[in-house]
TrEMBL record:
<keyword id="KW-0378">Hydrolase</keyword>
<protein>
    <recommendedName>
        <fullName>phosphoglycerate mutase (2,3-diphosphoglycerate-dependent)</fullName>
        <ecNumber>5.4.2.11</ecNumber>
    </recommendedName>
</protein>
<dbReference type="InterPro" id="IPR029033">
    <property type="entry name" value="His_PPase_superfam"/>
</dbReference>
<keyword id="KW-0324">Glycolysis</keyword>
<dbReference type="Pfam" id="PF00300">
    <property type="entry name" value="His_Phos_1"/>
</dbReference>
<dbReference type="InterPro" id="IPR005952">
    <property type="entry name" value="Phosphogly_mut1"/>
</dbReference>
<keyword id="KW-0413">Isomerase</keyword>
<dbReference type="GO" id="GO:0016787">
    <property type="term" value="F:hydrolase activity"/>
</dbReference>
<dbReference type="InterPro" id="IPR001345">
    <property type="entry name" value="PG/BPGM_mutase_AS"/>
</dbReference>
<dbReference type="InterPro" id="IPR013078">
    <property type="entry name" value="His_Pase_superF_clade-1"/>
</dbReference>
<comment type="similarity">
    <text>Belongs to the phosphoglycerate mutase family. BPG-dependent PGAM subfamily.</text>
</comment>
Length: 214
């Protein structure tokens, strides 16, 4: 069996502003740094054998806080990069809605039908395919181990839907707060979800503010 502890990165300034980040390499806010240390403390007594992160700083730093308490290096995997939002990256939701009203509406109602406009823009299926390939590799490489994986909102939602046998039309039914903890296990090719979007480690700091799935 392989156990994967899947976490989302801490808060960024763009999360606060409501900007679509995608693959822009934004930094953790002061609150995000505190969240990163809190999730690390929350996992410090949990055995972890391997730590893997998206190469984007917000995820890599969040993962590093956790890995440091276990004396582990952090491996980078490009397949864990956030969805490429194309022309939407760096823009506020209101700006996107004004310029791309039809696509913006479908993104929030039929997300599986949207390919992000602009060069490099991805669909959720693109994200699902690369994230699933990564997770299948982890299952093959790390049998009997616990793997910490730090990624992003869309990546986490896509892989959770996928391993549960849900298509990407269910994307918005999965919630992922900053530094939430999910636990997935795979044994003999069968996946099960053990924990979803846990923020118990956050205590008073967790506000429950909706992050708009950015």
């Amino acid at each position: 069996m392989v156990r994967i502890i899947l976490i989302r990165h801490g808060e960024t300034q763009w999360n606060i502003e409501g900007r679509y980040q995608g693959q822009e390499d934004t930094h953790l806010s002061e609150r995000g740094l505190r969240q990163g240390h809190m999730v690390a403390e929350g996992l410090k007594d949990t055995p972890i054998d391997v730590a893997i992160s998206s190469p984007l700083e917000r995820s890599y730093m969040t993962c590093s806080f956790c890995a440091d308490l276990h004396g582990l290096p952090v491996l980078k995997d490009d397949r864990l990069l956030e969805i490429n939002h194309g022309d939407w990256e760096g823009k506020l939701a209101d700006e996107i809605e004004a310029k791309y009203p039809e696509e913006f509406h479908r993104w929030h109602t039929q997300p599986h039908t949207v390919t992000m406009p602009g060069q490099g823009g991805e669909s959720l299926e693109d994200v699902r395919v690369r994230a699933r390939a990564a997770f299948d590799d982890y299952v093959r490489k790390y049998d009997g181990k616990t793997v910490l994986v730090a990624a992003h909102d869309a990546v986490n939602k896509a892989i959770i839907c996928d391993v549960l046998g849900l298509d990407m039309s269910h994307f918005w039914q999965i919630k992922q707060d900053n530094t939430c903890i999910n636990v997935l296990e795979c044994q003999d090719g069968v996946w099960r979800l053990v924990l979803l979007n846990s923020t118990n480690h956050m205590g008073y700091l967790f506000s429950g503010i909706e992050q708009k799935g950015l």
